[in-house]
Design brief:
4 helices; 4 domains; elongated; single chain; 4-stranded antiparallel beta sheet; 6-stranded antiparallel barrel; conserved putative lor/sdh protein from methanococcus maripaludis s2 fold; alpha+beta; Elongation Factor Tu (Ef-tu), domain 3
Amino acid sequence: MARRRTSGRVMLAILIVGGLLAVALWPSPVEVEVATASSGPLIVTVDEEGRTRVRDRFVVSAPVTGRVLRIELEPGDRVKRGDVVARVQPEAPPLLDVRTRAEAQATVEAALAAVGRARAEEQRAAAVLAQAETELARTRRLVAGGVLPAQQQDSREAEVRQAQEASRAAAFAVRAAGADLERAESRLAAPSPRTGNGAMAVRAPADGVILRRLRESESVVPAGEPLVEIGDPAQLEIVADLLSSDAVRIREGSRAMVEHSVDRAALDATVRRIEPAGFTKVSALGVEEQRVNVILDPVSPRDGDVVLGDGYRVDVRIVVWEAPSVLKVPTSALFRQGDDWAVYVVRDGRARRTRIDIGHQTGREAEVIRGLSQDDRVIVHPGDLVADGIRVIERPTSS
């Protein structure tokens, strides 16, 4: 009898110890972070830093060798075409010999030809603008009558805006050519006009703002020495140097977003030009990279609350693909399974490895073409402890 009691107690102790060992060795659920596959917009962009610059920049230089008087204008001061921006006291000019006079006369004739060419381009741009406006008016009537879709009107309006920009650029070119002609004539003729103290007046070739004052104090300068830069800060463009491998993915007219500060909304912009020639640039890591300059035109904000100037640093995001609604998951949930992509889907408290097909992806999200459904819950940042069929528990999120 005593032996039976002892045997029963031993068996009970063995069962208790075995149960405790089983509980201790039983694998506990792995804490994981979970995200939901959802439908929404997806935008694939090429991101790069850029800088702003004035589109039409005029460098006003000394027309003759002489002593430039102190320039009182400050950067940011507004000037109009014809305003005096500097005064140059010519040195006693030597008499022109036959060869120098012939060269000066040839320069004047070349400047006259440039003025004629610029005026012809201005007339051509005006004709193109008139034709574009006529086409827009005709398209608006056809759209209003239901003959043409509204997209045709949008295209015509874009053509009119481009023609307006070309017309303004042609007008600036005429002014610049006229300024070159005046400079060439001044080198051929006697220094004139002069102010009362004998200084030659250097005038602004166009309306704008003083961007930079290259000479401030009185000093002797040679002919052609830059004195000030003039431009219109309202006419800005953005330059971004992209990797050549990224530049081939974008097209002229592509939409872009320009972020210039952390507390303001991004500006809309469009790609106006992709320069045909690339250049080599050494990165901060010492790696040689082939880069291409891409020129963007910012769209003026409606509220006029954006303040940008010449040479400002901005962040540019150029759209290469976008869709209004796709099924997507975080890219941190993806991992390779051979040559395929896969994710861990949480079903009934267990991780199930699922092969999927993905499409476009960004640094944060990926488009799922096949393999998942709406509201499927996937594990993000799966670690080494996560395997197919293992029990998991969702990690509580901090509030």
